[in-house]
Amino acid sequence: MDPYSLKKLNALRKERRAAILLTDLGDGRDRVIAEGDAVAGALGEAVAKAFRSGKSGTVEADGRSFFLNVHLPPPRLVMIGAVHISQVLAPMARLVGFDVHIVDPRTAFASPERFPEVRLDAEWPEDALARTPLDPYCALAALTHDPKIDDPAIRRALDAGCFYIGALGSRKTHAKRIERLTAAGVPQPALDLIRAPIGLPIGAASPAEIAVAILAEIIDALRSRGIEPRKGEAA
């Protein structure tokens, strides 16, 4: 590997930015592509697909063979609310490879006994997320039903460009949430990114079923980044 490529790759990984080490199998030359860099043609399509899937491999493009070594930051799931849904969702998310972080200032809920082996901060989201900032490889699930807790976390997630932002509550509850966030100066295009009611519409009723619906929606959001929604689908 070219020393400059190694230096650039390490810098991007330290910043929790996705990168691909692209090696031309014909001449052995390599370069680093950061997610968001412009790459034209068939190679650009292969690079975009690799960023979504996270899978390394060989591709043929423009009459040449390339090896794409994909380096994605470990995805994080930040749950605002140490609630029953979180108790089920946390181990499920860890099982599929997410780093899990639960934030809830209510110490009666945010206890190590209820959430073993999970990072748990019994403090306000503004403080916890200032210490461990969100980024584009984070998913945020706001689950408390308490605007004082959920709303500041949602605003931070929007500012950070999280790949998924979901909020628990009915359509009526979400309409009131939108009113509050609009009054706080959040623009409409950002508000449209919030998934609410949270989770895929599978008729989930119990905390465990709701957790399944949420995790499925998060995985879909992670693997479809950069793809325009098909006609008839919500953005």
UniProtKB/TrEMBL annotation:
XdhC Rossmann domain residues: 77-218
Gene Ontology MF term list: xanthine dehydrogenase activity
Keywords noted in UniProt: Oxidoreductase
Cleaved signal peptide residues: none
EC number(s) reported in the record: 1.17.1.4
Record bears the keyword Oxidoreductase: yes
Domain of life: Bacteria
InterPro entries membership: MoCofactor_Util/Proc, XdhC_Rossmann_dom
Record flagged with keyword Magnesium: no
Enzyme class: oxidoreductase
Record-linked PANTHER family: ALDEHYDE OXIDOREDUCTASE MOLYBDENUM COFACTOR ASSEMBLY PROTEIN, MOLYBDENUM COFACTOR INSERTION CHAPERONE PAOD
The name this protein goes by in its record: Xanthine dehydrogenase subunit A
UniProt organism field: Nitratireductor thuwali
